[in-house]
Amino acid sequence: MINVTIWNEYRHEKAEEKARILYPDGIHGYIAGFLGKQPDINVRLAALDDPENGLPQSVIDETDVMLWWGHMSHEEVLDTVVQRVTDAVWRGMGFIALHSAHFSKPFRALMGTSCSLKWRDGAKERLWRVNPAHPIARGIPEHFELPNEEMYGEFFDIPNPDSVIFLGWFNGGEVFRSGCAFSRGHGKVFYFQPGHETNPTYHNEYIQRIILNAVRWAKPEGKIGEITCPETPPLES
Ligand code: ZN
């Protein structure tokens, strides 16, 4: 079984009617709905306003793959929680940053760059599968369209990914590295751009398949214990 924790800021869906209609139980609740149907996945939900942002060490220790959606309140995430998340990735936990999580504290910490980009609401996006052999691209056609999505455009200030799996084209002419895979320490990291809160992006069958594929890809092969930096005696005298 893969133990998945879906973390959501969970503010837009309470404050904005358009987001609430699309995601009445929150974006995290909606994603849990389709991931939780899989026989190999256990889901747990966590949100910003939960105690310790929903991520005490005990939850992180039981998580194989964490999904993260945040937007308007990145700065409210506790630095102690960010440290726990990044430590867990270094030790093997998978981490999937969704949409505006490009600016989340844990993703920026894992990338080590600004992660800035260009944006504009109200665009059509065509997603191109540019690495058809990658496990996250399994079952996805060469291209598909999202009639309404927020434009995220280059330059996206990330380190060079290990693999760019999806490239987004927008009807304003911009392009974006929309699906990028990285490794950090012993953990796998996937960034996936579509998913603005007032669009039905997570209702799309291909978006759901990509997220499912990403969870299975990011599952740790094994985790290492606490990271220490010990002084050690020699083995030979
Ligand atoms: Zn957005």
Written account of the structure:
This protein is of the alpha/beta class and 237 residues long. The protein has a domain at 2-113 and 180-218: Rossmann fold (3-Layer(aba) Sandwich), CATH 3.40.50.880. Helix content is 24%, strand content 30%. It is built from seven helices and nine strands; from the N terminus they run βαααβαβαβαβββββα. The protein has a nine-stranded mixed β-sheet with strand order 2-1-3-4-9-8-7-5-6. The longest helix is centred in the C-terminal third of the chain and has 14 residues, at 205-218. It is globular, with a radius of gyration of 18 Å. The model has no long low-confidence stretch (mean pLDDT 97). Residues 99-100, 150, 196 line the site of zinc ion.
Q: Count all strands and give the number.
A: 9
SSE string? EHHHEHEHEHEEEEEH
Order of strands in the sheet with most strands: 2-1-3-4-9-8-7-5-6
- Portion of residues in helices? 10-25%
Bound molecules: zinc ion
Radius of gyration: 18 Å
| Largest sheet entry | 9 strands, mixed
CATH superfamily of the domain at 2-113 and 180-218: Class I glutamine amidotransferase (GATase) domain
CATH domain topology of the domain at 2-113 and 180-218? Rossmann fold
* Average of the residue pLDDT scores: 97
**CATH architecture classification name of the domain at 2-113 and 180-218:** 3-Layer(aba) Sandwich
